[in-house]
Every structure is written in C-alpha cells, then in structure tokens.
Write a structure and sequence with these properties.
single chain; alpha+beta; Glycosyltransferase; Immunoglobulin-like; 3 domains; 35 strands
C-alpha cells in the first residue's frame, strides 16, 4: 500500500536521521551502515535517579504577597519573589538517559545495491546490500509480545554470515561490559536507576564465540542478535531477568518475527488514509522531502507523515510502559535537551492528540497510569506550597510523577495547570471509547485536579475567579510602564483549561453519580460559572492575559490563548463566530512575526486552522512543517529532535479530514485544495463511533460507513439533506440527527 515505508539509498550520518524502532519500553535507532552498523538503544525507565521531595515551603507563606504584587502590576517585584520563594528546593527533576550503542561489524569489502527502509505497516527496519558477490539482508525489529530487540542477518550464500558485536556508550558511565557465556554479553549500569542489558546471539549453521566484551559469529547461514534490557524500576532482579528474556527468545528465533508482525500490524491496520496523487513510493524519502523544501508538491508525503505518526505511537507507547516523553523513547544524550522529560504545558499532551482518532486507544493508557503516579505527589505539592486541597502539577514531571516546580525560569516555572490539562485526556478517552469502567476508575483523578482550584482561585476586581499566580507558558508581556513581566493573574489558557476540566467533571459525575461527590460537584459548577469570559484585544486577537498586554515576542512559539480553539472546543465558527475570527487574527499575527518556527508549534497551528475550517492554510502549514521542521528520517525537529510535532502533525492531518467535537461529526471540514480525492477508514469519533469507510471525489464527500459502538445518537453536520440507510434526512440548524443501534452499520450518502 502507498506511503507505508521510509526508504533511503544511503545510511544515516547523524542520530536524528537514523530510523526508530520500539515496543513502548525498548527503543532502537538504526543507522543502516552495511559493514559497521550502529544501533542506539533505549529503555524507557532508565532515568538519572530516584524520587526526591523538592517542594519549597516558603511559597505558602508568600502566596498572599505574590498575589498583591501581581494585582498592583509590580511585575519586577513579583519576579524576584518567585525566584526566592517559589522555585523548587532542588530545581531539577530526574532526566531520561540512553542505554548504549550496539555495534555490528563485518569485514570491509566493496558494497553495491544498497538500500535502507522502515516498514511502517510491519515495524521492521531492513538493510540490503551486496558485499563482493554475496547479497545480505539485515532486519531489525522490537517485539512487544517477546519484549526484546531482534536483528536477523542472512545472505544468499550459505555459511557467509560473519560479524562481531559489542556495546558501549553512555560516556563510559557503565559498570560491567563482559561475556556472560560463549554467546551472551552482559552490560550493567548502576548510575541512576540500575539496569542490565544483555546481547545474545543464535547462529544457524555457524558458531558463536566470546572475546572479552565482544561476541563473534562465524560462517552462519542466518544469525539472530537478541537484545534484552531490564531496570530496577520494574524488577528487583533485573540482571537475571534480562538474561532469561534474551535466552528464552533465542529458543524460537523464527517465531519472534511472526508474533511481532501480527501484533504490530493488528494495531497499524485499524486506521487507513489514502489521498490520490502521483505514486512516489519508489523515490527515496529524503529526496521527497528535498522536493518539498524546494517548493515542489507531493500529496502522498502528508499521508506518509500521518502513517509515521501512527507508527511512532505504536512503537513508543504501549500498555504497561511509561508515557511518551519529549523524544518518545528515543534519546542519545546523557544530558538531553530539557532533560527529555514530560513537559506538560503542551508537549506531553500533544503526543497523544492523535491516539483516539487513529483507533489506538490502548496506546493512550500509559499517560493515564502516569497521572496516577502524579496524584500522590501532587497532593503534597498542593498542601505544602499553596495550602490547598486536591492535587497539582507544574510544567514538568518525570518518571516518578514529581509535581514540584521544575527549572528556575520565570516564563515557565510557576505554572500550576499541568495536572488539570492532563486530566482532560481522561474525559477525551471516555468520549471516544464510552468505556464506563475506565471513567469510573479515573474519575477521582479528575476530581482531585479540579478540587485544587476550588481553593487556589481568587476573586479579581471584576468579580471573576482567576488563577493567581500564573503565567502564559513561556511567554513574556510588557506593561504600560515598559516593564517585562511573566507572572500574572487569570491567563486565558487557565480559564479555558479550567472551564473544560470542570465541564468534563460535571459530565462524568452525571454519568457515574458517585454519592461521595455531590457537594464538590456543586462547588465545581458554581466556580465554573464565575470564570472570566474570553476577551478580544486591541489588535483584534484573543487576549493572552487578563490585561491586554503587548508581547515581548509577537511571534512566540506558544499560542496558549487559543487552547479554547484547539485542543479545547469553546471556540467554533458556528457557535462563537466573533471569537473564531479573533482566533484567526491571533494565528495570522503570530505567523506574520515569524511564529511556527518550531516543529510542534507548526503542528499546533495546523490543528487550529483545521478547527477554523481553512483547508488552504492547513495545506500551507503542513508543507511548512515538512519543509522546515522535518529531518530526513521524518522525525520532527524543534530543533533539536522533539517528537511532539510528529504526533501533533498527524493529528492535524486527521482533523482536516474528519472532526467530532461537541459530539458532531464533520466530514472534510478543512480539506486542503490539492487533496482532491481520497479515502479513509478506521477513524474514531466522539460518542463511540467508528468510521469504517469514507471516500471523497473532486473535493466532494461520497459515502461514509459508520459503526455505532455504543448505540448513541449520531449527529452529522451538513448544510444539505443526506441519505441515511437510503432514507433522506433533513438538517436542523445545520445538523442531521438520527438514532443508532449498537453494532448496526449506517450508510451515509452526502
């Protein structure tokens, strides 16, 4: 099938152009060198150390003074107080670390007929080449069923597979690196979270020998290199568990591939997209990107990007693993950019924007598990720093669910909305799946996140309840006196997040109605009604702060004031046309000042244009994402590499073709002009619906086949009558409504 493979005619020269593999826990980056291969390894729980309590108790005694300084517009004094009383006692959370580099070295000889590819459908990296007169194939994949990394090497001449394997890396920050037995290496780490990595070789028709910290295979017909890794985060016996895993996998090397292919493809094939256009599959991926950078066109590259985002979700986030961090699970640096942590003022959330619509709900689960890890620490942070109930998290968290302020950076650190935003994902998951057991299990987390703000909010001079102190993530305002400020009260993003969270809690309570919560639900309703409205500023934009400040950087990468447009749905062209126009002005103003210069920011902008139903601007920004912020490997570049843009971009492509906000399906809401005809299948919709098939021709929708998974009322936006199972249905206020039966197919003809 078209656009399901990354393809190259030369190896990667840099880490970010290697090709990623993973099973959610184990990650690998394959360079594709034929005779001196490097595969960079990761394990998702290999972090720099244990949990440490970092709450600053001085914050609680100074919260009143901080609010007074902000209310009086004394920005500089508020900044200084933040630096002295509100930063964490230790400003750094733990950070993610690499496992090491595996090297596969063969004898040097002349190479021809080289290719390197990554099958997105099957999750297999393949290197092919001819050395002398022998043709070799090297396949690498990471199995979720068997939980190991496998590299299979074979040739068309019996007894010609010979190579040497070793492992190193981590700036020499490891302990043992030795042969465990004649065909097994052991590599151990005690710095940070202790870890054991094992490399085990099975050679068919040949032999394996150990030489110090290397293994050598000689004269094999086919050889399997099996890599296992375990850390003390998950098991007290990581050493022997890793050895056992590797050796157990080696007993049935042929079965590893079959089980992996089935597992990966079962997930990948659920959701499909095809846009008619020129077949570019035979053109190397880096050449296709170069064409876009030079102003060319390639509609299939957007499909490839969408498919790659699906692939990365399957490879990077599986039940039982940790959630996707800033680089998913792929990181080469001992001290990575921003600690390769979970940055929850947009980046972690963006990682999961496409999971539900792409029918990968189970891949969303690691995020919910991490929310549970955060809750206990979030209660301590709420109590010790602010004297509040509930639970809170600032703009970062780590493997331990640390919720205290991270960094000492005024534009970002003192932001208390992290857990609130994450808990919105709980309701989002329920909207798509209609899983009542899940909602019941996770409802307490939503309530705790909301409960914090019942204590934290303060009344402003206009009688509204606002968050204070707060900030608009990573941005800086200029006061009328010319001072630069960061801290404020009542930022627009706060209002949008809280309105959304409070509404989600109220809806969930109505469905579950747990008798432990009637009083707090009433308080949440009253508080929601006192939140300030969204405001339009002097430039015709959505105001970012309560006061209509100018920004120090009008082209800033964050567009936090438009949370209400996306991922929220408080702003829509139908219901709030004035605010929708102001949102358009906000985006245009950002872009005119150089905005969208990071991959994830450009991805956010794609989703925003989709929500404004502007297909031309969607296409323009997809092309900008591909041309300016995408490595040859198709990985997103902040720069440096940051994976959120891949997921945000994939979500934006879906959003252009199909939306279900407010429980209303919209087909082709923001169709890019060059996407004249195409088809999709397996897209999920809020309310518990699966779009089993949908096609469009010459920019016009054709037939949709919809499967109701819960038997809810179906709503489709249409300005004209449509046929539902052959019966003409008239729209009322632009929406066609009809009853459904669980599991019974619906044929919709537009």
């Amino acid at each position: 099938m078209l656009n399901n493979k990354l393809y190259y005619t030369s190896p990667a020269k840099e880490w970010h152009n290697a090709l990623p593999l993973g099973n959610g826990r184990l990650g690998a980056m394959v360079y594709g060198e034929p005779l001196n291969e490097t595969i960079s390894l990761n394990e998702d729980s290999l972090w720099s150390g244990g949990f440490r309590k970092r709450e600053n108790p001085d914050a609680r005694d100074n919260i009143g003074l901080m609010r007074k300084l902000i209310r009086e517009g004394r920005a500089s004094e508020a900044n200084k107080l933040c630096e002295s009383a509100f930063y964490g006692n230790n400003d750094q959370q733990r950070h993610y670390q690499p496992l090491g580099d595996m090297h596969i070295v063969s004898e040097k000889t002349e190479i021809s007929d080289y290719s390197h590819s990554l099958s997105l459908e099957y999750g297999v990296d393949e290197v092919k080449y001819t050395a002398g007169n022998v043709h070799f194939e090297r396949r690498t994949f990471v199995s979720y069923p068997d939980d190991v990394i496998i590299t299979m090497i074979r040739s068309d001449v019996k007894g010609s597979v010979s190579f040497e394997v070793s492992i190193d890396g981590r700036d020499d920050s490891y302990d043992e690196n030795r042969a465990y037995d004649g065909n097994t290496l052991v590599y151990t780490i005690s710095d940070g979270i202790p870890c054991t990595c094992v490399i085990h070789i099975v050679a068919l028709g040949g032999r394996v020998t150990a030489h110090g910290s290397r293994l050598r295979a000689d004269d094999a017909d086919t050889a399997y290199i099996i890599t296992a890794a375990q850390t003390a985060y998950r098991t007290g016996d990581h050493f022997y568990k890793a050895i056992s895993q590797a050796k157990r996998a080696g007993r049935d090397p042929g079965g590893l591939y079959i089980r992996h292919i089935k597992d990966h493809n079962d997930l990948y094939s659920r959701c499909r997209l095809n846009i008619e256009g020129e077949d570019c599959d035979g053109i190397p991926t880096d050449k296709r990107l170069e064409n876009i950078r030079n102003g060319g066109t390639d509609t299939g590259l957007a499909v490839l990007y969408f498919n790659f985002s699906k692939y990365l979700m399957i490879a990077g986030s599986r039940p039982g693993t940790l959630p996707l961090n800033l680089q998913g699970i792929w990181n080469k640096d001992m001290w990575p950019a921003w600690g390769c942590k979970y940055t929850v003022n947009i980046n972690t959330e963006m990682n999961y924007w496409g999971a539900e619509v792409q029918s990968l709900s189970e891949c969303h689960m690691p995020l919910f598990d991490h929310i549970e890890r955060m809750r206990e620490h979030g209660r301590v942070t709420a109590r010790d720093m602010y004297g509040c109930g509930g639970a809170v998290c600032h703009h970062n968290t780590d493997i331990w669910g640390d919720t205290a302020p991270q960094d000492k950076w005024l534009p970002a650190t003192l932001w208390v909305m992290g857990l609130a935003w994450l808990c919105i994902h709980i309701w989002e998951h329920f909207e798509y799946t209609q899983d009542l057991d899940f909602l019941n299990d996770r409802f307490d987390a939503m309530v705790e996140a909301a409960e914090f703000f019942l204590d934290y909010l303060v009344e402003n001079e206009d009688g509204y309840l606002v968050v204070s102190p707060t900030l608009s993530p990573e941005n800086t305002y200029i006061t009328s006196e010319g001072e630069k400020g960061h801290l404020s009260e009542g930022c627009t993003m706060d209002t949008a997040i809280l309105y959304t969270l409070f509404t989600d809690v109220i809806r969930a309570a109505k469905i579950l109605w747990d008798e432990d919560y009637p009083d707090i639900i009433g308080r949440i309703k009253q508080t929601r009604d006192k939140l300030p409205p969204l405001k339009v500023g002097k430039h015709g934009q959505i105001c970012e702060w309560m006061r209509d400040y100018d920004e120090a950087e009008p082209g800033h990468r964050h567009i936090s004031q438009l949370f209400a447009l996306y991922p929220g749905d408080m702003i829509t062209p139908e219901k709030t046309p004035v605010l929708a126009e102001a949102a358009r002005t906000t985006i245009e103003r950002r872009l005119s000042h150089g905005g969208g210069h990071t991959g994830w920011s450009r991805a956010w902008i794609i989703n925003m244009w989709a929500r404004l139903y502007d297909g031309a601007r969607v296409e323009e920004n997809i092309n900008a994402l591909l041309a300016q912020s995408t490595a040859d490997s198709m990985l997103d570049m902040h720069p440096p590499f940051q994976i959120d843009g891949n997921f945000g971009g994939g979500a934006g492509i879906a959003e252009a073709l199909f939306q279900s906000t407010g429980g209303v399906m919209r087909f082709l809401p923001a169709l890019p002009p060059s996407w004249e005809s195409g088809k999709l299948s397996g897209f999920m919709a809020r309310g518990g619906f699966r779009v089993a098939a949908f096609s469009w021709q010459d920019h016009k929708p054709g037939r949709a086949v919809i499967i109701p998974l819960a038997g809810n009322m179906c709503r489709i936006r249409s300005d004209k009558p449509i046929k539902v199972n052959g019966e003409i249905k008239e729209p009322v206020n632009g929406i066609v409504r009809f009853e459904t039966e669980q599991g019974k197919l619906i044929m919709v003809d537009f």
